[in-house]
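ERR on first pass: missing label on line 2. Operator R.T. fixed the label and resubmitted. Corrected input:
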Amino acid sequence: MRDAYHEELAALTGRLVEMTRLVRSAISRATTALLDSDLQLAESVISRDEEVDRIFAEIEISIFDLMARQQPVAVDLRMIIAALRMGTDLERMGDLAEHVAKVARLRHPESAIPPEIRSTIVEMGQIAERLVTKAGSCIASRDVDAALELEGDDDAMDRLHRRLFTVLMADDWKYGVEPAVDVTLVGRYYERYADHAVRVARDVVYLVTGSRTPDADIV
Amino acid sequence: MRDAYHEELAALTGRLVEMTRLVRSAISRATTALLDSDLQLAESVISRDEEVDRIFAEIEISIFDLMARQQPVAVDLRMIIAALRMGTDLERMGDLAEHVAKVARLRHPESAIPPEIRSTIVEMGQIAERLVTKAGSCIASRDVDAALELEGDDDAMDRLHRRLFTVLMADDWKYGVEPAVDVTLVGRYYERYADHAVRVARDVVYLVTGSRTPDADIV
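pass 2 clean. output:
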């Protein structure tokens, strides 16, 4: 039987997993809104980001409270530190999905994404969803091997990000500056979304093993 | 006379202030490297970012150690949480300065910045420096009023960021896609640098007063 303290720590895990679900849904809807120029869907991503912010605020309050009332040590202490960091990353992922949705809204009823770029954006969206889904599973299972796998998916995202620039900079780019700026920003949002998912996974490794991978090599 | 515990907390403050000095110097040199197409200066920003990462790693170790050995409460506990967050933001600011330097390096010996954009980049660099300088003073002085002032400087950065897009999207933009992509990315780096400085200032407010401004409204 667990005491109230450990119930509260477990609740932190539940809240973080819930955040991964919300920001997965957000990037999924944002990608569709962007590709289909769907204003209503874009608006739903933008308005529902506050749900993510609210859960993160609850996590922060809960953490501060736990630290003030208990003297967490070892893995519990790492859980609290990791939860604070993971919550920050997940909150940011929600913001980035919102940024993608705002580009869709800005260009509506036109599409911000030229046909040559669509398949790359589809793939970036899929990888983003895969990364955050895996991150959520890792938080729930504390599976270190699964957490380490996320680095490989992030490499795939980086390749797609570079491919975007190749298409943008090619001599036959015929869409001019505005779509190039949109695609540059959107590409950056997906790439950062993936980076934050990797950081979440690294914090799972940290909380289980106590060893930290420096974030410095995530650019 | 202070005990070893409070000496360690004070040392955290010193390390954070040192980080602000390093990332201020980094964005200053990166801006010059970008505007003057100075490869050597760009390389110095890129190679010296590891110094920032190293100090942040020391801060993390010190925080984990303090939390494991002590039972920090109230303002000390807030200091530890705030230091972890501030360190994360400052480390990211170092990365962003490095990104600016990498754009300078990529386009060398050409300049990534067309003449019409130079004055805006100069101003963005100045505001970035002002923000991080103020953030450093706030960390050292714990001056809440000064910390709250940073929001105004960040508004100025946001205005410059919007001005960049106005110039890029104008009909008389004659530089084509590549410089537009560079300027879009560089603009985003400065704007994010400023956002992180504002977050640092907000954490000073939090550590002094215990009340948090949500980050949600920093986009």
